[in-house]
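Forum: Protein Structure Q&A
Topic: Joint prediction for protein chains with partners

I've read a bunch of threads here and the consensus seems to be that you should model interacting components together rather than docking separate models afterwards. I'd like to see that in practice. Below is the full input, 457 residues plus whatever partners are listed. Could one of the regulars post the assembled result?
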Amino acid sequence: MEAISEQLTDALGIMILGMCLVFVFLSVLILAMKLVAKKYAPEPQEKKRNIALQPTASKPTVSPLMAAVIASAIHQHRQKA
Amino acid sequence: MEGLLAFWSESGIANFTVGQIFMMGVGCLLLFLAIAKGFEPLLLLPIGFGAILANIPNAGFTDEGGLLYFAYHVGIETGIFPLLIFMGVGALTDFGALIANPKMLLLGAAAQFGIFATLLGAIGLNLIPGFEFSMQDAAAIAIIGGADGPTAIFLASKLAPDLLGAIAVAAYSYMALVPLIQPPIMKLLTTESERQIKMEQLREVSKKEKIIFPLMVLGLTILFLPAATPLVGMFCLGNLMRESGVVDRLSSTAQNELINIVTIFLGLAVGSKLSADKFLQVETLGILVLGAVAFGIGTATGVLMAKLMSKLSGGKINPLLGAAGVSAVPMAARVVNKVGLESNNQNFLLMHAMGPNVAGVLGSAVAAGVLLAVLG
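Posted by a regular:
Agreed with the consensus. Here's the joint model:
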């Protein structure tokens, strides 16, 4: 009987120690993951989309004069056909 | 006439013992569960067949020189089979969901309480006459609560080889029963409104993060818990092969051919431990009961931890996720998804549940390492 109660105390000790170790280990891992994420996480999607959209919006690649020329060329082409 | 008598005395009918017939029945039951019910067929089928082979009188499968004897001796006694399986599981696992939301590791840690509570329970069973579990036996039984087959077999082969058959069968049967065991516990501990909580979409994860992750896990294990490095190391090797993208051939072998071949022999070798003299003992009954309790407690503490995190985060975390903290990948995550959908048919929790689910694999490997370090 005494042996069992001694074993039970041991088991309780291992339980507390074990749970603490598991939590500490995984918490350290969380910290490490956050550090890595700070350095290597990709930019959030929305920002990327903005960056991708901006150049097309702010820098028209076809000048107004050119656009007029193209428009008239298309017009002529359509009339021919 | 003499020839006929000699033939008769060698026949199966003349040599059967009741125990052997009973264990063949158990083997057939496992085959039935695998084939007709679809419970973990990949393992229960070879285990069931192994159980039948191991109990054939005069066939000598499990005697020295027999096929099952060598399969066990080479693969399980040495711990090689479960480790190779772990490498394959690593190659199959995508840690993206966990990397995107590292807090989920806490759920994987909380669910391991089932393991340590069962350690206490197994020692407590010694109060009943007929049970005599040593601390090592108790630890090997308790790891069933981690719901991770290879980890359970690995630890049992190191700490309590005599109980390996019962422990492996219990571990895999309960993993198959996850969809039945978990939902009642999950529903009992959460309210309807909690189950309906929707979660934010996970952020994207870069390739670099995915490559660094297994190396980081290995590094921490080396520093703090070298006893867990066989399990964690093989797991990380498999995962690195997957994520590095430069050894697709090796990665695909690890997650297909290799894991399949090892599964066949692992199943047979575990089945060979289901021989009448080893399995038909009162301890087996205790192990089956303790395993179920371990599983239930693990699920419950996972859910309770998730509830706490949900409260602290102002209701951003669905407490159902906690149940995925026991490993059983991907079954537990699917169960979470299913229970979540029952409360809100627009709420898909699968990706979110994969985080705590793979965290559970790491958690149970760490718990196994702790038990090995303390008791091994």
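Chain A touches chain B at residues 4, 7-8, 10-12, 14-15, 17-19, 21-23, 25-30, 32-34, 36-37, 40-42, 44-45 (CB under 8 Å).
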